[in-house]
Amino acid sequence: MPEEIPTSPEAQVPEAQPVFDGGEPLLHDEPSAALPPSSFSEPPASSRSHWFLAVIVAIIGWTLPGGGHLLLRRWARALVSFCAVAVLVFAGYKMRGNIFPPHGTDAFDFLGFLADAGAGIFYPLAKAAQTAGPDVSRAAGDYGTRLLATAGVLNVLILLDAVQIALGEKN
Amino acid sequence: MRGGTGEAMILTHFQTMCLFAFVVSLAFAFLSRNRLKERLRYAIYAFLAFLLVAVAMGWLMYPVSH
Asked: Where are the domains of chain A?
């Protein structure tokens, strides 16, 4: 006698496969509600390695603009990031913008230092190269100050992008 | 634009704005898009948006400056 084939829609749906195994999600599914909360208490080893990689990427990305993407083999992003920060710093330096020192006299100087320091290796390079000092008596010097700050902030955005990629939150 | 050793490079406000807009829009395009065509389109869009907003803001502030 032939085997009876189920005809109801419920019977045709295959049995649900487990999507969560010991705290590590499979197939990027949401964790099942049936699992106890203790499944999430211990971060998986891959998560820890992602965080370690993200910290390394952040440090390298800050030190050398585009270095984080270079480490992640995102060649185009690394090249454009490096060139973008380099062009902004070079233009700001050539326009004799103000490169804020670490020990500013007021809060705005300190904020300016934070923005400038975001450029990583370019900050001490520009500081060392600018022997004549800033010249903000002309508008161009003021524009240069803004370009230098933009370079630092842009590099922070770039390294955050690299960190997101390292964490697997972004493709 | 002047340049040279010991002399500051002088760019006008508009030239500086164009430089800023070009570099930043290119960086944004490469960070936020994955395909070359999308990046190019986004870079042009962001560049024009930077310029348009800056010019619009300038005209908005014009009555206040006089």
From this structure: 44-167
